[in-house]
Amino acid sequence: MYAKPFEIIGWNSIIKKPTKFQVNFEHSYLTYEGVKMPNWRETCVCVRTGLSNRQRLVIQLIHFLGFGDILRSGSVYVTEQLSSFFHFVRSRNGKVVGSEYLGADKKPGVYKDFIRHEDVTNLSFSDSNFDILITNDVLEHLPN
Questions:
Q1: What is the C-alpha separation between 49 and 87, in angstroms, rounded?
Q2: N or C: fewer beta carbons within 10 Å in the chain?
Q3: CA angle 59, 60, 61 (to 5 degrees)
Q4: What is the end-to-end Cα distance of the chain in Å, rounded?
Q5: CB-based burial of residue 103 (10 Å sphere; 0-12 exposed, 13-18 middle, 19+ buried)?
Q6: pTM of the full predicted structure?
Q7: What single DSSP character describes residue 87?
Q8: How far, in Å, CA of 116 to CA of 80, rounded?
Q9: What Rg, from alpha-carbon coordinates, does the chain have?
Q10: Is 126:104 a contact under the CB 8 Å cutoff?
Q11: How confident is the prediction along the chain (144 residues), in pLDDT tens digits per residue?
Q12: Does the CA dihedral 27-30-31-37 come out positive or negative?
């Protein structure tokens, strides 16, 4: 069954404005009745910020926990650099550093095509270098 992407209008509490959200059927699933359902967590993307529901929730949670000032002006490390989440946070705070994992053959802290390589099991940063570290990944299959 093919389902077409669509838009809905709603409120984005991060930017405190009404906006459109784009919904598609990537990562969708079929209900018991055979109806194709969107993955609301990942595909309800704000057209103004480029952030999905999950990404907006992470930002809201950071503010709720009292770290909003750090997110806006502190030293922040995000374990991603190519995502809309990183670009959104970086656009509001120039001290945000992001990285991607580029492979076991790369030394942590090196850049390839302007992308910083880091391995979460062997970060190149000094201790206490950041006020907050944000990861949107599930850290699984890592050695203890």
A1: 9
A2: C
A3: 90
A4: 43
A5: exposed
A6: 0.89
A7: H
A8: 9
A9: 18
A10: no
A11: 568 999 999 999 999 999 999 999 988 999 999 889 999 989 899 999 999 999 999 999 999 999 999 999 999 999 999 999 999 999 999 999 999 999 999 999 999 999 999 999 899 999 999 999 999 988 776 666
A12: positive
Give the containing element (helix H, strand E) for 20: strand 17-23
Are the CB atoms for 23 and 3 separated by under 8 Å? no
Write out the two tokens for 103: 């492979």
The answer to whether the beta carbons of residues 71 and 59 sit under 8 Å apart is: yes
Strand order through the sheet with 76-78: 96-98, 76-78, 132-134
Q: Maximum distance among all alpha carbons in the chain?
A: 54
> In the chain, which residue ranges form alpha helices assigned H by DSSP?
40-43, 53-64, 68-73, 84-92
